[in-house]
Each structure stands twice: as structure tokens, then as C-alpha cells.
Design a protein that fits this description.
The complex is a heterodimer of chains A (161) and B (416). Chain A is of the alpha+beta class and 161 residues long. Chain A contains 7 helices and 4 strands, in the order H-H-H-H-E-H-H-E-E-E-H. The chains are: A alpha+beta (161), B alpha/beta (416).
């Protein structure tokens, strides 16, 4: 079995996983959190990462593959440093989220689903973020940005290096 | 009505402020009575679930076996992913201790020793906020071993999802919490018999649990008198779309929908007329503006009007809205979120989306209207979980109540 040096979790996260296991009768329940940790450290979840987590929790590889492919927030390919997720669901649509999406596409010269050549930004469409009262909205990483207009978007993107 | 779930008290999210406004007094009082007395109080209050199904909360609690040899679990559903719904995040942010207090009271009432709050993955910011509150509550002895010297012990843990609308469906939520793909389970068996890890489990919505300390504070009789008699209490109404002041408004149940739009949410921008509303999140049936006169935000009134209260996520569309692309977007959502287990939903949601795109691009034919309805009718009731119904209802109701919207796109094709 080949394993690259980076294909592991930090000591801190490994300790945290041991703590989390105590909360559940079966270690499998920690799989989403372990995958979050992996994505947090590596930016995306490789097959090596999935195999590593399967061994860590003593569950089959294919189970972890199945979990990763079910949940939309796990990146199965590398993404840019900042993943921009623009909500285009009904409440945002009614408040012109299309204009926000088009503005970002034009500004970054990429289409939805693409990453800028400098790997700074990836742009995707999101399903309802729960920002209907502050629409239109987008999420970048863990952060929400709401009540958007093109000028506001420019300032936000300017601030992300 | 004074807000009871989200009172405008500065820094209420901190435990000191929460305690100084009577916080955790209901937990203390509940621990001094019997678990059955607590359940009975909730039953008599007529509190009904706020997640969409409006099931009587106290009754649900009585389904839990009393003498279980297996551990019992409480799952609090904070997946909040139904488009148009954004109420639970207000509780996480502004009154997290009310939710925590309710969770521990519910655990005591049902003899539960482990409770989980499952929260959608996108809400990382709010999970962090709620975790701070949980840590404070542990530090003050409101959660953990021998709570307030009562001899009752229970734990409360937060569990983060990873992006899947279906995980708001209770059996899917349990599978997700167990670390599996979020596939819904066939019912029966129901969670109270066979839930998390095959053990008795109750699943309640975040807002429902936040109502529990309020019920105990006011007393069942006083609580039952708030708002609509058969669906009483405060309700968090999220208003979005074409209104001047979108947001979450805490109101008694039974407030007229037009009153909510015009007097709370500031009316429609530009003084335009309302064309349509979706009253309780994207899966609830659309209503024409001329048919909402006198219709109120509660389960019975909306049922009588031909829709449902759902999550009370009210989406308003003005007279200039083209409803076909709106429905196409809703159909896209359900296609994207279908878990793929049941053929009618997996295939039908994609088919409906394609046809609706044809309409939106003026490329549909008259027979597509019948085909669309036929597909929706064949999804409804033929799937393991309610996502199939949730995908069918918008299509059925848009077609039935707004045929002219589809006709317009057919005419546009004919004249092209």
C-alpha cells in the first residue's frame, strides 16, 4: 500500500476524533466529522483520504466512498482557495441572484463549476442556504455573505487573496 | 404578543443574560416533578411540531417505551434546508439556551440519556455559536451528570451534516447521524420503536423544542390560548421574496397572511400587487393572491385553503413574476436533492425538470402539460419518504392554479 506523507490527519484532529467517538455507540458516526477534518486540512477529499478515514474508524473503504459521494459539501476534486457558492434557489432567484452569479462569472472570467487559472476561486451554484430573508446570498468557505449587490460582491472578492 | 421564542433582549445568547431573565428555571422546576407530569403538560398545551408535519408533540413523546432495556435517544432536527425556511438559525444565534433548556427538559420527560442536535453543514457559523452555549450549559451543571442535584443525567451533542436536503427527513437524518448515506428508511418501524442504532428515538424540530420551556413557563392552559386554538403558540414566520422587509417574524399562529405581508413585512416593493404566495416552504402548494383573503398562518386555515403551513416559510411573488421559471427552479432543487432510492422520485423529478425547462424556453407543446401532471401524480404517494410528495405538490398546484402561466409560454412558442 502506498501512502504519501501528507495522507493523514493532524495529531490534534486525531485526539479530537478519539473524544468524538465517545459520543456514539459506533465509531462510524464520526465519519462526517472526520471527513470535515480531512477537507479542512487538505482542501478536498482524495481516495487516499477516504481510505485513511476508513482505517481510522475501522469501517470498509467503500462505505466511506459512498458517504463522500452522497453529501454535496465534500469536494471530490481540488478546488480553488475560495469556493464561492451562490444561492440561486427560489427566494434568492426572486431577488435577482442571477445578476450576482453573472457578475461573478464576468469578473472572474469563469463559468459556474470552474476554477480560476490562479486557483484562487472556484464558482458553484448552491441550493437554498437558509438566507431567504437576506437574499441574495452566497457562501465562501464557512462564511455567509448576504443582501448582496454587485458592488458588495466586488469588495468581498477583493478582500480574498 | 410579546415574543416568547426570540424576545428582543440584548445578549440573550449568553448564559448570564439568559439566567437573569428566568432561564433554566423551567428545567429546575421540571426536575422537581415527574417525567410524566412534564409530558402531560406538553400534551395539554397542544404544541404541534414546527418542522412541517404539525404532529402533536406531547403525543409523540408518549410513543417512547417507558421500560426500554435499550438506550433511548432524542434527535433535534436543525437541518433546515427547505427553500424559504430560515427560522432555526435565528434560535441558534439569538436564543440558543432556550433550545438547550428545552432539549434537557424533553430528555428528562422521555428518560433519554443522549440527545443530538443535527445541524446542516452549511451552518458552521451557527454550530460554533450553539456549541459555545452548550459548553456554558455544561459548565453550569445544566447538562451532564446529576443535573442540578436531581439524579438525572444526560448529554447533549451537536452533529454537523454535510449538505443534503434529504437529511431533514427524520429517518434519513438518523442514517446520516449513524455515519451512513442519508437514505430514508421504510416506516414502520417508527423511530419510537426502532430509531438510532435500532433504539427508541424521538425526533423533534429545533423550533418545537424551543417551545417546550415556554409551555412550562406559561402553563399548558395559557399556552393553548395563544393564537389558533387547534395549532396554538408562537410561530416563527419567515417571509421572503417580493416584500420590502423580508425576515423572521415571531407571531401567534393564526395571523392572516395578508396582514403578515403588508403589516409586518412592509408590503410588496413598488406598490405592486401580489400574484401568488407559497405559504410554508417550497414544497407547500402555491396559492393565488385572490384566494388568500382571510387565510391565516396555521395548520387548519391553510389546509382549508388547499395548502399547508409547512415550516411557515412564506414566499411572496409579485404580479410581474413569471411562475414557470420559478417552478422550473423548484423542480431543479428536488431533482438535485432526490436521494435516488425510489424510482418514481429519482426518474420523475428529472423528467419534470426537463419538461419545465422546455416551458421556460418556449419549447414545450400542449401535451407536455398533461405529461407533467401525470408524472407528478405518479410520484405522489409512491415513494419511501415525503420528498416525492414535496416534489409533486408544487408541480400539481402550479398547473392547477396557474394554467395561464403555462399557456403564455405555449403561445410564445406558437407565435415564434
Amino acid at each position: 500500500m502506498s501512502e504519501t506523507h501528507a495522507a493523514r490527519l493532524s495529531e490534534e484532529n486525531l485526539r479530537r476524533i478519539e473524544e468524538l467517538k465517545k459520543r456514539y455507540p459506533h465509531p462510524q458516526a464520526v465519519v462526517l466529522e472526520a471527513l470535515w477534518m480531512w477537507q479542512g486540512e487538505h482542501g478536498w477529499i482524495s481516495e487516499d483520504g477516504m481510505r485513511y478515514i476508513a482505517r481510522l474508524l475501522n469501517i470498509p473503504d467503500h462505505h466511506v466512498f459512498g458517504v463522500v459521494s452522497f453529501y454535496t459539501m465534500f469536494n471530490r476534486q481540488p478546488v480553488g482557495r475560495h469556493k464561492i457558492e451562490v444561492c440561486t434557489n427560489v427566494s434568492c432567484m426572486l431577488r435577482n441572484s442571477e445578476r450576482i452569479l453573472t457578475h461573478i462569472e464576468n469578473r472572474l472570467a469563469i463559468k459556474v463549476g470552474e476554477t480560476t487559472p490562479d486557483r484562487r476561486f472556484t464558482l458553484v451554484e448552491a441550493e437554498c442556504l437558509g438566507s431567504c430573508g437576506t437574499a441574495p446570498a452566497m457562501q465562501i468557505g464557512d462564511r455567509y455573505y448576504e443582501n448582496l449587490d454587485p458592488q458588495k460582491v466586488d469588495v468581498i472578492l477583493e478582500g480574498l487573496k | 404578543m410579546e415574543p416568547l421564542i426570540l424576545p428582543p433582549i440584548p445578549d440573550l445568547h449568553t448564559i448570564d443574560v439568559y439566567e437573569s431573565h428566568g432561564g433554566y428555571a423551567q428545567l429546575r422546576a421540571a426536575l422537581g416533578t415527574s417525567p410524566d407530569a412534564v409530558t402531560d403538560e406538553v400534551k395539554r398545551s397542544n404544541l404541534r411540531g414546527r418542522g412541517g408535519a404539525c404532529f402533536p408533540t406531547g403525543l409523540k413523546w408518549t410513543f417512547m417505551p417507558k421500560d426500554s432495556v435499550k438506550p433511548k435517544y432524542l434527535c433535534i432536527n436543525g437541518d433546515e434546508s427547505e427553500p424559504g425556511t430560515f427560522k432555526d438559525r435565528q434560535i441558534f444565534e439569538f436564543n440558543p439556551h432556550l433550545l438547550i433548556e428545552g432539549a434537557i427538559i424533553a430528555s428528562y420527560a422521555m428518560g433519554i440519556t443522549t440527545a443530538y442536535i443535527y445541524i446542516r453543514g452549511e451552518y458552521k457559523h451557527w454550530i460554533d455559536l450553539l456549541q459555545k452555549a452548550v459548553d456554558q450549559a455544561y459548565a453550569r451543571g445544566y447538562i451532564g451528570e446529576n443535573i442540578l442535584g436531581s439524579g438525572f443525567s444526560t448529554n447533549l451533542y451537536l452533529h454537523r451534516g454535510a449538505g443534503a436536503y434529504i437529511c431533514g427527513e427524520e429517518s434519513s437524518l438518523m442514517n446520516s447521524l449513524e455515519g451512513q448515506r442519508g437514505y430514508p428508511r421504510v416506516k414502520p418501524p417508527f423511530p419510537a420503536q426502532n430509531g438510532l442504532w435500532g433504539c427508541p428515538t424521538t425526533i423533534n424540530n429545533v423550533e418545537t423544542i424551543a417551545n417546550v420551556p415556554v409551555v412550562l413557563r406559561l402553563g399548558a392552559e395559557a399556552y393553548a390560548k395563544i393564537g389558533a386554538p387547534k395549532h396554538p403558540g408562537p410561530i416563527l414566520v419567515g417571509v421572503s421574496g417580493h416584500v420590502n422587509k423580508p425576515g423572521v417574524y415571531e407571531l401567534p399562529t393564526g395571523v392572516p397572511i395578508l396582514d403578515i405581508i403588508n403589516n409586518y413585512a412592509g408590503g410588496v416593493p413598488g406598490g405592486k400587487k401580489i400574484k401568488a404566495i407559497i405559504p410554508g416552504g417550497s414544497s407547500t402548494m402555491i396559492l393565488r393572491a385572490e384566494n388568500i383573503e382571510g387565510v391565516c398562518m396555521d395548520a387548519d386555515s391553510l389546509k382549508a385553503a388547499g395548502s399547508s403551513v409547512g415550516t411557515a416559510g412564506l414566499i411572496v411573488m409579485d404580479e410581474d413574476t413569471d411562475l414557470v421559471p420559478v417552478l422550473a427552479r423548484i423542480a431543479h432543487f428536488y431533482r438535485h436533492e432526490s436521494c435516488g432510492q425510489c424510482t418514481p422520485c429519482r426518474e420523475g423529478t428529472g423528467w419534470m425538470e426537463k419538461i419545465l425547462h422546455r416551458f421556460a424556453h418556449n419549447d414545450a407543446s400542449r401535451s407536455d402539460m398533461d405529461l407533467l401532471l401525470n408524472i407528478a401524480n405518479n410520484i405522489e404517494g409512491n415513494t419511501i419518504c415525503a420528498l416525492g410528495d414535496a416534489a409533486a405538490w408544487p408541480v400539481q398546484s402550479f398547473l392547477k392554479r396557474f394554467p395561464e402561466e403555462f399557456e403564455r409560454h405555449l403561445r410564445a412558442r406558437a407565435s415564434a
